Amino acid sequence: MNNSDDVIRGRRLTDRESNMLNYPDLPMMDDKIWNEILAPFIINEPVKDKWFELLCYYNYQTEMYDRALTNLRSPYDETEAYIVEPEVRESSTINAINARKFVLQIAKQEGMGSYNSDNNKYHFSAQGWIDEYLALKKCGKLDWLEKYM
Is the pTM of this model over 0.70? Predict the structure, then answer.
């Protein structure tokens, strides 16, 4: 295995992980150790899925609101709204705060626990979040949010 193969999901393997994959004759580790190593890569748990859906909803709502406020786009991400005027920026900030409160209220009512930044390992462009939201909406994965609207 060369160094470029020594990566899982964009991060370098630890020595323990590398040894497990590169030296199959080593004695097998028990399930507890395997689960400890693989835990960061298991993202299909229901609560994490719901957090991802809420993140998509939040980013969609805030970005679409910002786009309604301005036609300017960020020089770093041409899909992201770019707000210059202080009054408009304040309106955008107030909207983002209210959207965040709404999302946290939904999470509380769904029994998802408090928000943990470990749930936010996703890095999309502004348009990427919108596309994710629309794809989830199209396949019906956001139907559970309808009761809060």
Answer: no
